[in-house]
Amino acid sequence: MSDKKATLAIEGENAIDLPIYSGTIGPDVVDVGALTSQGMFTYDPGFVSTAACESKITYIDGGNGILLHAGYPIDQLAEQSDFLETCWLLWYGELPTKDEKESFLKVITYHTMIHDQMTSFFKGFRRDAHPMAILCGVVGALSAFYHDSLDITNEKHRSISAIRLIAKMPTLAAMAYKYSIGEPFVYPRNDLDYTENFLYMMFSNPCEPYEVNPVLAKAMDKIFLLHADHEQNASTSTVRLAGSTGANPFACISAGIAALWGPSHGGANEAVLNMLNEIGDVSRIDEFVARAKDKNDPFRLMGFGHRVYKNFDPRAKVMKKTADAVLKELGVDDPLLAIAQRLEQIALEDEYFIEKKLYPNVDFYSGIILKAIGIPTSMFTVIFALGRTPGWIAHWHEMISHSHKIGRPRQLYTGPVQRDFVPVEKR
Ligand code: CMC
What we know:
Elements: E1 5-10, E2 13-21, E3 29-30, E4 58-61, E5 66-69, E6 72-73, H1 74-80, H2 83-92, H3 98-109, H4 118-123, H5 131-141, H6 155-181, H7 194-203, H8 214-227, H9 234-244, H10 249-260, H11 268-279, H12 285-293, H13 314-330, H14 335-349, H15 351-355, H16 362-373, H17 380-401
Antiparallel strand pairs: 1-2, 2-3, 4-5, 5-6
Helix pairs in contact: 2-8, 2-17, 5-6, 5-10, 6-7, 6-17, 7-8, 8-13, 8-16, 8-17, 9-10, 9-17, 10-17, 11-16, 13-16
The protein binds carboxymethyl coenzyme *A (CMC).
């Protein structure tokens, strides 16, 4: 907070002072709350210039390609930390001590099983249901199973709900996949770590043993970690908005999953792979780049551009390195990778993309890794949801732990003015 002020005069009159607040880093914000008393609202479609809350969790400097969680750069976390440690960091704002980490890993492990009754929910879906449709439903349904932890004013309830969500998400995600391919559900194993367990529940079956490849488990863990939080993105803002009404955390995260599903957000990783398949050959890249630049064509290059990053997405850099490691380990020579690499090169040299600062984002390379691991395209956004869960729940917790208002934007109304109702026979 500071003594700085902005002065706003409406048509040169009735000047009002608007306080300016400073964060620890990043742009100052102008508190426009006093505008309402002047009978005016701000207008900012897409919240391009609006800070909707104060937060200590994540900082992004989009111009310089910087992403920090509680101050720690994402590349350092990706190299030296792991997903569950990052979950702790997002929730508590500090790295865990050795003992804290050990007990957190244990508590997560011992909450990975789901109530057996939950399996009935899956059976209600068509086999060809999109796993994101299933995930929205089953995560929301968790609120029907944990009445013992739904008091959002109780810190302990909030914390056990967070643990349940983080722990059960891989089990639910793997079940959605198993259901779609008609294989039996696989229960979690407490001797495996978080990511190994996910791969085990996805790919093992009762007929033969399954060994988790440590290189793939490490890559998967990195994918989860790189998605863990991204400050006030569309799905996190959805979770906050739903949570601001006092809704329970399972319902709020389900709302976040729904918001994530769209191709402009988490659905982009699936869309990238579909796009690379559609391009099909390096020789057709120019045609697709031309379409992306054509104002009359709605086509966009999926995996490019970001609302906040106007420089390389730092997550994409780590993702690219991880893709190389996975493809090397598996000895995969994926023609889609050649298309992706050439597309990236062409786009980075193209005036249109340079001028609009459209760089590859986190979703550009994640699909290549997931495909190499054997994850079907329809599961890509589910994996994003799994990774983003600690971010969603940390933001929800941060908001609920402090005084907050119900989220309730205003509007610029451009519909008809008041008029009298006309009975049907006179219309
Ligand atoms: N391909 C071609 N043109 C693009 C693209 C793209 N991928 N992205 C933006 N543009 C153009 C857009 O047409 C517009 O041009 P103009 O100024 O001439 O009208 C300009 O760049 C600005 O675009 P915008 O839509 O106003 O920007 P935004 O900040 O509202 O949208 C975005 C950001 C991510 C939705 C958009 O870049 C996009 O649709 N990208 C493709 C989808 C994608 O990869 N999404 C994943 C985002 S990262 C993961 C996540 O956080 O969810």
